[in-house]
Amino acid sequence: MTYRVGIDIGGTFTDFALLKGDEVVLHKNLSTPEDRSLGVMEGLGKLAEKEGLPLPEFLSRCEAIVHGTTVADNTLIEMNGALTGLITTEGFRDEIEYRRGYKEDIWDVRLEAPQQITPRRRRLTVPERVLHDGSVHKELDEAALREACRKLRLQNVEAVAISFLFSFVNPEHERRAKEIVRQEIQNAYVSASHEVLPRAPEYDRTSTTVVNAYVGPRVTGYLERLVQRLGEGGYRNQLMVMQASGGVMTKDYIDGAPIRVLASGPAGGVVGSAHAGRAKGCPDLLCVDMGGTSYDMALVLNGEAPAEAGWNMHHRYLVGVPMVKVETLGAGGGSICHVNKGALEVGPRSAGSEPGPICYGRGGTEPTVTDALVMLGILSTEEGFAGGSFRLTRDGVEEAFRKIAQELGHEDAERAAFDCWRVVNAHMSQGVRRTTAGKGIDPKDLVMLAYGGNGPAFAAIQAEDLGITRVLVPKASPTFSALGTLVANPTIDEERSYIASASALDVERIRTLWSELSDRAAHFFTAAHFNAQDIRADYRLNMRYPGQNFSLSFDFAADTPLGDLSFVGEDFAARAIELFNARHMAEYGHIREHEVPEVSGVRLAAHVETPSPAAGGGFSPSGAIPKPDRHRRANLGQGFADIPIYRGSDLAPGTEIPSPAIVEETFTTIVVYPGWTAQVDAAGDYQLVRTS
After folding, report:
1. Alpha-carbon distance 420 to 427, whole Å?
2. What is the pLDDT of residue 457?
3. Which helix (H) or strand (E) segment is 116 a member of?
């Protein structure tokens, strides 16, 4: 028996999905913030125990270990990355701070600018200049560069970002600068813009390069520790890492630009959602993931989770690499309930896994959403939590909510817990409305797919608020992002800049750029021991109308053999205009018929198909009437009542559960709110259907 393991590290739990044949085994482990690789190895040890194997033998049988990580996200959230300096072209010292004049809320005069990753004292310039055509106008002043390195060295910088003007056309100066920085500042992590984001515009490239330098040492250091521990434990294959683009790739590839793993954990869940939605005949999905720390929202349309490059503002920094679009709120099970100036608020602060919610019994003192669910009877204190890893307790929970109640002007702890439930639910529903409205989409037209440890506890009531009548809850929902990493294919998604009017294209230049990208992809895929004939490629163009700031990306040739550029012919320009106009019409509802668009770059997304978990669908009622395992006093939004509790392991496909009810799965709790019915489909997954 061989295995494939998917891993996703969250703020509270580290999730595991073990694929052996067609069977999926799930496991959750508390995250270890001091060194997250320790939690990974501990969880792998637990999976080995379940298989009756010593860890070395289990790891030796693993064909692939695929890992999604929030190390880069947490570094930006906590602002504890490397001490970073920036070296740029003379005259462009403050470009990174101008942010193109962009402000998240133009009406808030008190909104502070983001905390500077590279404050002005660590932003230095050197004389050099490359022109837009790649010609050298001014040679690199190496003496000035060495002096800049000396100044950064005196400030004890740990990482250096290098971003010179038009280096994406001619990277000669940046390559030389990288060599000198490594000589002058030994052991510093160096991030060069032509390697991280080799395209225009200038601010996008500089911002992405700076963020890459800031998170790079943390990401690469963590991955190196994990690879070392896996090797010592008996794993013999390459570690595959989830990328924000929705694909996975080797650690060696990620080392070149660690920024690619930013938001990779949530991306795994969206990729898994698209896979499940296609299998169940639901191509248009609202994906919601409520874990221990955050609430993530994403859209899947026409069965795809597209990765978009460009204006990806993540934690108030522009990140220009392709990313699956995921919106995040600080609303998870560990989000802390508190009173601020007489108003009840939930989040964004989280109790995390250390100490965690009060009900974990690990020293937490501030009430959280999970504590509110315990107070409302939605979560059980009767049996093991998270697969039996520990048991929840009410000790201290009621007292904490009584304090909240007193601050709100009453004495009822249960009412305070219910108010927390209402506030966090409203916060999440409003976040969904903002996300869908920005795309011009009515939530009523979507099917909700809920996952994460807490997602199914809120899914139906949120769907009701949004007018959605059907909710899918995969049986693997509590570790769905980990399962999604096993669905994702090894993928390389990169682009190169080339700006020209579609009426004056240098077709050979485009062919050369695509050929260079193809060779680079082939190098990394073959190094990872994939067969060259198995690599498929989507060749894409980035285009825009003259005067537009942002480009649209579209497939020019999809699912072709890597390196086969036979589609680049005499009709290339006419075909490009036709495809771009069609894409523009689909995105914006209009085209400029009398304007000739321009190409702004070429893009290649290459991938290899790998085995993924099977997903089925279809519901055929069996007529069987399930019996509840027990009853519990709980409040499902209409006051406390005696609510039937069902064990998920007792429910066979074809089963229907009337409301109100609570279904307890191993790692999650599914709430069937009044007016809803839960159904178990042929694959053992749940669907919640609005009945009134």
Report:
1. 10
2. 94
3. none
Query: Is pLDDT above 60 for 618?
Result: yes
H or E, element range at 179:
helix 172-184
- Contact between 413 and 402 under an 8 Å Cβ cutoff? The reply is yes
* 23, 58 contact by CB (below 8 A): no
Question: Residue 545 is which amino acid?
Answer: Y
Q: 10 pLDDT exceeds 80?
A: no
Q: Rounded to whole angstroms, how far apart are CA atoms 514 and 540?
A: 9
- Greater confidence (314 vs 214) lies with 214
Q: How far apart are the first and last CA of the chain?
A: 48
CA dihedral sign of residues 28, 32, 36, 38: negative
Q: Residue 99 half-sphere exposure, CB side, CA atoms within 13 Å? A: 15
pLDDT digits (tens, 9 = 90+) for 524-547: 999 999 999 999 999 999 999 999
Mean pLDDT across the chain:
91
Rg (CA), the chain: 26
How far apart are alpha carbons 65 and 23 in whole angstroms? 16
Alpha-carbon span 577 to 501, nearest angstrom: 10
The burial of 60, by beta-carbon neighbours within 10 Å (0-12 exposed, 13-18 middle, 19 or more buried), is given as middle
367-to-310, 397, 400, 450 alpha-carbon distances in Å: 39, 7, 6, 24
For residue 494, count other CB atoms closer than 10 A to its CB.
22
- pLDDT tens digits, 629-687: 999 999 999 999 999 999 998 999 999 999 999 999 887 899 999 999 999 998 889 99
Q: Look up tokens 């709430």; give the residue.
A: 671
- Can you tell me the distance from the alpha carbon of 336 to that of 345, in angstroms, rounded to the nearest whole number? 8
Amino acid at 689: V
H or E stretch covering 224 = helix 202-233
pLDDT band at 386 (very low <50, low <70, confident <90, very high): low
- Structure-token pair, residue 81: 């990355």
Separation between Cα atoms, residue 342 and residue 423, nearest integer Å:
14
Tokens of 338: 């508190």
Whether the predicted pLDDT of 439 surpasses 70: yes
For the chain, list the domains and their CATH numbers. Answer: 3-75+220-261 (3.30.420.40), 79-214 (3.40.50), 491-608 (3.30.1490), 630-690 (no CATH)
Q: Quick one: tokens of 246?
A: 């929705």
| pLDDT range class, residue 23, cuts 50, 70, 90 | confident
- pTM attached to this predicted model: 0.86
- Mean pLDDT to the nearest integer, 431-451: 91
Cα torsion 570, 572, 577, 578 to 10°: value is: 90
Report DSSP state, residue 293.
S
Q: What is the DSSP string of 239-302?
A: EEEE-TTS-EEEHHHHHT-GGGGTTHHHHHHHHHHHHHHHHTT--SEEEEEE-SS-EEEEEEBT
Q: Please choose, from the candidates 525, 485, 605, the residue with its C-alpha nearest in 3D space to the C-alpha of residue 70.
A: 485
Q: Which of 453, 161, 205 is nearest to 318 (CA)?
A: 205
Measured CA to CA, the distance from residue 164 to residue 179 in angstroms comes to 15
Burial 64-93 (b: 16+ CB within 10 A, else e): bbbbbbbbbbbbbbeeebbbbbbbbbbebb
Angle between helix 572-588 and helix 507-527 axes, rounded to 10 deg: 70
Q: Quick one: how far is CA 485 from the chain centroid?
A: 11
Q: Secondary structure of 585-602 in the HEC alphabet?
A: HHHHCCCCCCCCCEEEEE
- 247 to 78, 82, 302, 484: CA distances (angstroms): 26, 26, 18, 10
| Cα–Cα distance list, 46 to 53, 72, 227, 384 (Å) | 10, 26, 18, 16
Quick one: DSSP state of residue 303? Answer: T
